[in-house]
Amino acid sequence: MDSSTLPAVAEELLREIKKAFRESSHGTDTFSSRLKFIFGPSAVPALDLVDQRSVTQLRSPSGRTLYQVLGSSGKLYTCYSSCHYCTCPAFGFSVLQKSESLLCKHILAVYLSQAMGACQELSVSEEQLTNILLAEEEDEG
Questions:
Q1: Per-residue confidence band for 26, with pLDDT thresholds at 50, 70 and 90
Q2: Residue 44 forms part of a structural domain
Q3: Angstrom distance (rounded) from CA 98 to CA 48
Q4: How confident is the model over 108-135, as pLDDT tens digits?
Q5: Is residue 53 part of a domain?
Q6: What confidence category does residue 32 fall into, taking pLDDT thresholds of 50, 70 and 90?
Q7: Average pLDDT of the residues of the chain
Q8: Which domain holds residue 61?
Q9: From CA 115, how far away is CA 123, in angstroms rounded?
Q10: Whole-angstrom Cα distance, residue 46 to residue 117?
Q11: 77: Cα within 13 Å, side-chain hemisphere
Q12: For 22, 24, 52, 54, which has the most beta carbons within 10 A of its beta carbon?
């Protein structure tokens, strides 16, 4: 998990969650208060997305990966954990413009899904991955 743009305390919490799930597969109850403290209002909705198995890792034959998260509204958002970015409006506004949050619920759901081993996986062709990336650029433009 490459979350180098997150504060050290957030990275440490995600490492602890990953270790706990690897060792005993117990729930996030142990971590929920710390998640809420560090990630604020994104924590509970992100956990809901993880519980609903809304996070899918797309991997191409070359090894390139990106994540798609089915949001609570039914819209599919593309997330890039390698550069800590999501295509949702909340990320653009709360994270980038106002710096009110570390991340949106979709990116947090990606990190939590990785840590908890709850991420769905889908192999796609290089062309499919490129088309997803190009569609995102068109949506933004």
A1: low
A2: yes
A3: 25
A4: 999 999 988 899 999 999 999 999 888 8
A5: yes
A6: confident
A7: 86
A8: 8-134
A9: 20
A10: 15
A11: 27
A12: 54
Task: Classify burial at 45, counting beta carbons within 10 Å of its beta carbon; exposed 0-12, middle 13-18, buried 19 or more.
Answer: middle
Residue 6 carries which DSSP code? S
CA dist 28 and 31 (Å) reads 5
Instruction: Give the span between the Cα atoms of 116 and 21, in whole angstroms.
Output: 6
Q: Which amino acid is at 8?
A: A
Closest by Cα among 111, 118, 105 to 22: 118
Q: Token pair 């390139």 is at which residue?
A: 64
pLDDT at 68: 95
Per-residue pLDDT tens over the stretch 38-65: 888 899 999 999 999 999 999 999 999 9
For residues 84 and 67, what is the distance between their CA atoms, to the nearest angstrom? 11
Domain membership flag for residue 2: no
Our count of domains for the chain comes to: 1
The reported pLDDT for the residue numbered 113 is 93
User: Does any domain span residue 26?
Assistant: yes
